[in-house]
């Protein structure tokens, strides 16, 4: 068994994704020695963040103010609360994390990243608009700040200082080391055991072998788990899929993340006594398309659409308000699955796709990823669709391009996984919408939404085309896109306090009621005393920390039921920062939203504090 290490680590980090790099950066800035383990090779350093578009959620930023967007922490708190819908006892720590993260997004976050060399593009995107009332899910204003350099740049600003620390002897990377067990002694986590996997020379994101070579055991005073979610583990996704809220799990789902995003460490941590909460909170997208140039198995890409495409179900019926492109992911997910089919259709034309289609992913936006200002400006001014979108039009199996409506519907029916679409029914719905574009007002709520989007300068410049008739030949050809569901993020996970310490679970068979400072789950018996199952005892497991998606981006699910977008990378950064600082400071963090006892929560009392927070309990289970 291998036990050697080039350093005697102060902390072991399991997972070399963004959250792990951030935690390592904070630790090495404090002079601590770090051992980083990952089951993949060095080519995958940075994990899923590398593939991202690089969106960051900021509040009342200079970029917003330049575009005359009036944002505030108060407005963002209200949007977050109505979107998260916290309504469970175990939402105690997620509420605290949400409050602390909002403070971070309105305060230190932008300067913290700027000091590392990260820059933003001037246009702020308006994601997850909701569209269903001021008191429901959605961003009231644009808050999606796009990184100049996309995901690779977000990774770079942390990777480079960590690699410099490696050169200085503070960091020891161990790739192809798969952790299978957390070592516990006297109730504390003191290290990890696992297996060294055979070398892999695969490129980033490509599925690697799982051939085992030898066992290993490594120890340190602290272990930080940063291994991501369950986005490529469809068996686990189906097990916890919220059928009551979203509908039946789809027969077809594309993979928005590489094969190594398997969620293994969730069970391994739970086996070591960790509390795992909100497993049914899963964030999948509704606008997935098959990648014609795949990197990992089942590789899907998300369309990030503007507001003008018409959205139809598998039978060719237009979705009702507010199921418009880019408005409310979970509501539209439920609407799609309620039809009994797991796919839907965009219908649009060349003018719409040129201006309104963007593809999520660093590799799908080479101009911004490569930080080429000339190509980026040409793309904005061009009358042609960006090259990656043209490639999907030409090679993507989900795209239909046609000169006539008859050709369009025939192509849609060739790609159908269910019913045959009636040509006349589909075309009449498009004509009804087209009649609402002859004047600067409309009774069609989607046309109204387009006018509203164009009232925002950022959307008018790059994201929302002027309303026009979709069937107008001057704007052709016609285009239809088959949309499948796409896995992406895990919104629940390991329960952690604000220092990233993992909360423990204990058997409540011997517990006569709720522990003081804890939160009980399970059914009480008829006498009201005791219960079967487990209890969140509110006590951190000594030596065990976690950050990133494995914690639902903080606390076990700081997003609640819905995400406002631009919050995933930020959640990895914030949680990695807090865990790293806590370990560096002997178990307590400093700065960035205060210590674990500084923010209270409504609902159950936790192990520290009992005040109230702007993130209240709302929504339904």
From TrEMBL:
Highest taxon, organism lineage: Bacteria
The UniProt record lists the keyword Flavoprotein: yes
InterPro entries xref list: FAD-dep_OxRdtase_2_FAD-bd (IPR003953), FAD/NAD-bd_sf (IPR036188), KsdD_DH (IPR014614), Succ_DH/fumarate_Rdtase_cat_sf (IPR027477)
Native species: Brevibacterium spongiae
Pfam family, one: FAD_binding_2
Taxonomic path: Bacteria, Bacillati, Actinomycetota, Actinomycetes, Micrococcales
The protein, known as: FAD-binding dehydrogenase
Annotated SUPFAM superfamilies: FAD/NAD(P)-binding domain (SSF51905)
Region span, Disordered: 586-621
Annotated ranges, domain FAD-dependent oxidoreductase 2 FAD-binding: 10-569
Keyword check for Iron: no
Keywords: Flavoprotein, Oxidoreductase
Compositional bias per record (Gly residues), positions renumbered to this chain: 588-597
